[in-house]
């Protein structure tokens, strides 16, 4: 069974701080990695994708990938109360075509 | 505007009844997916289709059926064999480059 693991949280940070969200995956052949944000009662929204080892930055978000350690992370700089949501890590595994396997998500709470 | 439309937004099912959830996309995406989300859980893959007239089972296909007769449409039927169908159902589609998905707004199914 191919798995994607995340700490469920909640992760609590003060406004303006850096939030660090982590994800590990079991399929060593995985090539594509995604972070989704999901507000309560809403559908997930894609915020970052990463395919190569290293860092990828987009505004306040930075995704980090280490395939050797099978680890992907999301950093949110200058966290805002509007960032409070559940963050889902998703991995495209080699055995499921184009389908993504999701972790259970980490709930982030940013206090003002 | 391009997007994915799921209907209905809320659906109530009686015991022993089959219900069908609609998913329509106008993004010209080849691949479409169905996921189920239970409270506090991540997304679990039910079925996916990478091309018209073809689909594959995901991790939790038992008690569900799908069809893919048109590129734009991927309806999901929740059959009476699905003993615990109360959940949030999400449909998604993806383009040929293997990037992230676009999700519909979801259907919340409740057994009454």
Biggest sheet of chain B: strands, sense, closure? 7 strands, mixed
Helical amount of chain A: under 10%
- Strand tally of chain A: 11
Overall radius of gyration of chain B: 13 Å
Sheet bearing the most strands of chain A, described? Answer: 6 strands, mixed
List low-pLDDT spans of chain B.
Answer: none
Q: What would you note in describing this structure?
A:
The complex is a heterodimer of chains A (about 110) and B (about 110). Chain A is mainly β and about 110 residues long. Helix content of chain A is about 0%, strand content about 55%. In chain A, β6 and β7 form a beta hairpin. The radius of gyration of chain A is 13 Å and the shape is globular. The model of chain A has no long low-confidence stretch (mean pLDDT about 95). Helices cover about 0% and strands about 50% of the residues of chain B. In chain B, β4 and β5 form a beta hairpin. Chain B has about 110 residues and is an all-beta fold. The interface between A and B is medium-sized, with 25 and 24 residues.
Describe the structure in brief.
Chain A is built from no helices and eleven strands. Chain A has 112 residues and is mostly beta strands. In chain B, strands 2, 4, 5, 6, 9, 10 and 11 form a seven-stranded mixed β-sheet that branches.
Features:
heterodimer; A: 112 residues; mainly beta; 6-stranded mixed β-sheet; 5-stranded antiparallel β-sheet; 0% helix; globular; B: 112 residues; 4-stranded antiparallel β-sheet
What layout of secondary structure does this protein have?
The complex is a heterodimer of chains A (112) and B (112).
Chain A: E1 4-6, E2 11-14, E3 19-25, E4 32-38, E5 45-50, E6 54-58, E7 61-66, E8 71-76, E9 85-92, E10 100-102, E11 106-111
Parallel strand pairs in A: 2-11
Antiparallel strand pairs in A: 1-3, 3-8, 4-5, 4-9, 6-7, 7-8, 9-10, 9-11
Chain B: E1 4-7, E2 10-13, E3 19-25, E4 31-37, E5 43-51, E6 54-57, E7 64-66, E8 76-78, E9 87-94, E10 102-103, E11 107-111
